[in-house]
Sequence to fold (213 residues):
Amino acid sequence: MNNFKKATLSLALVAAGFAAQAQKSFTEGVIVYSVTTNGQQNEAKNYFKGDSSAYVLQQGPADIKIISNDKADYRAILVDVPVASIKKAAVLTPADMEQMKTMEPTFTSTPTTETQTIAGYKCTKVTAKDAKSGKTYDVWVTNDITAPTNSLTKYYANFGGMPVKFSISQMGQQVDVVLKSITAEKVKPGTFAVPADFDKITMQDLMSMRGGN
Fold:
């Protein structure tokens, strides 16, 4: 009987140890990122549920939200400037989506053996090379956790883990991203919808607002 109890206890401890090391999967919640552009550091949040995500960032007086899905067939960009009473939303058309795809980088990946702990997660470095520009980036991925792909991580979705520390290019500017935390929590209703009080504009109108062509 004592041997049986010892064997049972050993199996329980092994199972507990395995559970502690098992990958944690998040299907709904919020990721907090540290985002640095041109030396300016900001905090950004990505709310996610199922295949939908909403990336929220403040740029000066403007609150920016990008709503997208895993299928990459829907994207809406919302700009809210309270001090100027501006609420604009550009829902991209299929043509807009195709044009954006032509501007996106195409990466190849080269795994390395370098590791470090970031935000409490064990990460491995993968070298990414943009086939279009030839630029290389360090991408740190982890297998400790998983979460749906979002507008930041989609470029490195097939790099062997969840991107935790990486760089991307947006509008010709390098953006350095570091995951600070990920939390499982209920996302508020309406997070992935365009509010009725936002004026609908085209992507071209939105680009004109920021001085684009």
Notes: The chain has one domain: 24-209. The CA atoms of residues 68 and 183 lie 20 Å apart. The helical segments are 2-21, 94-103, 203-209. The longest helix spans residues 2-21.
